Amino acid sequence: MLCAAVTPAVSGSRWKLFTNTYLVTALNPKGIIFFVAFLPQFVSPNADAGQQLWILAITFVALATLNATLYAVFATSVRKMLASRRAQRRFNLVGGTLLSSAGVWALLAKRPV
Asked: Dihedral of CA 88/94/99/104: which sign?
């Protein structure tokens, strides 16, 4: 039995996609819990906590934006390299080998007693 390839629906607007992705990420409970647990460690009790938290949040958003931008630029350049079936097979072979090796390493690692 042959299955037809299903292509996902593409949003008409890049801004709509950006907004949707931003809202899903910003309202993710795991992210909120992480920041509630992580950020207070870097807040000095001798200064305005609100201002410090805003500075930390803005710094995180700026670094996350830079990270995502660099990742997108890298992915765009790699896309051209992985256009051929041969390159995709090699990529999958190398990636699978690395993941399998990491699994074997974790399995054989000595745990402290």
From this structure: positive
pTM of structure: 0.56
The whole-angstrom separation of Cα 25 and Cα 19 is 10
Confidence band for 61, pLDDT divided at 50, 70 and 90? confident
Query: What are 77's two structure tokens?
Result: 């350049």
Stretch (H or E) spanning 99: helix 85-108
Express each pLDDT in 81-99 by its tens digit: 888 999 999 999 999 999 9
The DSSP-derived string for 22-85 is HHHHHT-HHHHHHHHHHGGGG--TTS-HHHHHHHHHHHHHHHHHHHHHHHHHHHHHHHHHT-SH
